[in-house]
Write a structure and sequence with these properties.
By secondary structure, the chain is α+β, with helices and mostly antiparallel strands. 46% of the residues lie in helices and 18% in strands.
Length: 254
């Protein structure tokens, strides 16, 4: 039975590459056509594959609908929260989780610093979109036309001398962030606050959220905070793996 299930599931990634006929499926599985046909018929009955008029098979609408429903029901905050807490325990600084919604970047989770100096950020509050490290990551992942349209609509307040001054500078920064895969805000919003951030990606590789570590200069310098970047990126990669289903969650053992 397990071999049958394994073979049936092996058909799905093949069809994800494009429609395939019975012979191609049988060859990929290394089985006789009659065996491949039985598997395809079963998957077809459950809506997982669809037989086209040219007798080739493709992924079925039911499978696509299930995948979409599963993604919609995933709560990135619930998945990420224990990792944010662990990161906070490791470094001691404020940790944020943010998402992009309706042309705003919002904090959806926060773990406070262990130090007396606290951040004024709040869950549900929009970030300073032209300077925040999490915003740069989320916007850098937009398609180029979307980035340019949004950049042209934004205002560019000069919170500090390090703030992003205009749309061309903002787009240049987004290009850099997109290429390097991480972002910083080193005094761009508040002179005394620095931040490093990393992206959380879904199964398709797109950025679904961003997480960051922030700290004031009185606690750590910008250079000291930057040494935490590898830890932040590893944490984000772990969350990405769980969110996308690439990494199985370890079950607790008694």
């Amino acid at each position: 039975m397990s071999q049958t299930v394994d073979r049936a599931l092996s058909i799905l990634p093949l069809l994800a590459e494009g429609p395939a006929d019975l012979g191609q499926v049988a060859d990929r599985l290394g089985v006789h056509k009659s065996t491949a046909l039985r598997l395809l018929r079963t998957l077809h009955e459950h809506g997982m594959v669809y037989r086209q008029s040219d007798q080739r098979y493709r992924l079925g609408a039911r499978l696509i609908a299930l995948a979409q429903e599963a993604m919609e029901n995933l709560d990135i905050r619930e998945i990420a929260h224990p990792h944010l807490v662990r990161l906070n325990e490791q470094c001691g600084h404020t940790v944020h989780l943010a998402v992009y919604e309706e042309e705003e970047v919002l904090y959806i989770d926060k773990v406070e610093s262990r130090y007396p100096v606290r951040m004024y950020s709040r869950i549900g509050k929009p970030v300073a979109i032209t300077v925040a490290a999490v915003a740069k990551l989320l916007l850098a992942d937009l398609h180029e036309s979307e980035r340019r349209t949004l950049a042209d609509k934004l205002e560019y307040p000069m919170y500090t001398s390090r703030s992003t001054p205009n749309a061309p500078a903002f787009l240049k920064e987004l290009d850099r962030v997109r290429e390097q895969g991480w972002a910083t805000d080193l005094g761009g919003h508040e002179e005394s606050i620095n931040c490093v951030a990393a992206p959380i990606r879904g199964a398709d590789g797109r950025v679904v959220a961003a997480m960051s570590v922030s700290a004031p200069n009185v606690v750590v310098t910008a250079d000291e905070l930057l040494t935490l970047l590898p830890l932040v990126r590893r944490t984000a990669d772990t969350v990405s793996g769980e969110y996308s289903g690439r990494t199985p969650v370890k079950e607790a053992t008694s």
